[in-house]
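User
New here, explain this?
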Amino acid sequence: MCLIQADIKATIVQTVENAVNLIRKAVQQHKPKIVALSECFYSPYVSSTFVNIAEPIPDGFTSTALRGVAKELGVYVVSGTIIERDTNGLYNTSAVWGPNGELVARHRKVHLCDIHMGNGLDIDEVSYLKPGNEVTTFEIDGVKFGLAICYDGFHHEFINLYAKLGCKVLFFPNAYNVEFGEKFWKIVHRSLALQNQLYVAAISSARNENRSFVAYGHSMVINPYAEIIAEAGEREEIVCAEINLYDLEIKKRGLPLHTSRRPDIYNRKDFVPL
């Protein structure tokens, strides 16, 4: 797989063209089967602009460009996310395009941010977006992949459903700013990989201090032992890693977290929250 940590350019057209060219470069150099972009990769992640940058899926400008390059190169492309305009409102949506240009999966962000931590860490999605309601998976050559978005990863009960469904790899398009990334980026994604015993691909846009939203960078792939096996720096970069399913099963047998679970305790009805 390859993760595209792309820079955000002056316009959406320029940004999408740049991302498409990076996808071509990744496929030419590394021959991946699947390529993934970051959350709202085509525009700075500023909630007040969502109405202006929203577009339909699958027929909007960004979707058309990504499904076109997926078909051109014969690969799977995880669109990062697009602010999707639907008849019911706006959603933060990640679409997966197949090698024939087909829409393979669509995940609408389930957990919307209403974060007010101060120091530039206020993130308001609930005033602008509608939440999705699905756990989203798709298969390539019999291997099950999961798709979740940024703040979805802060909710362990939700991510654990992907492990229960048999996912081997979980894609996380993200939009962490620098301060949020310094605090949480590695902690969140490494813990999700370990606790759910799967590979995690966390994708960020490149850091650009000239933009209204400054992304953290450091896109990375993490194995089920919480080891970072590939990581980008801050700037525009292509990050690639091989997924070793045999090694995954060895690690799961060596640390059998799922078989040692005690749902008889977790699901007891006599526990009363304090």
Q: What stands out?
A: Residues 2-258 form a domain with the Nitrilase/N-carbamoyl-D-aminoacid amidohydrolase fold (CATH 3.60.110.10).
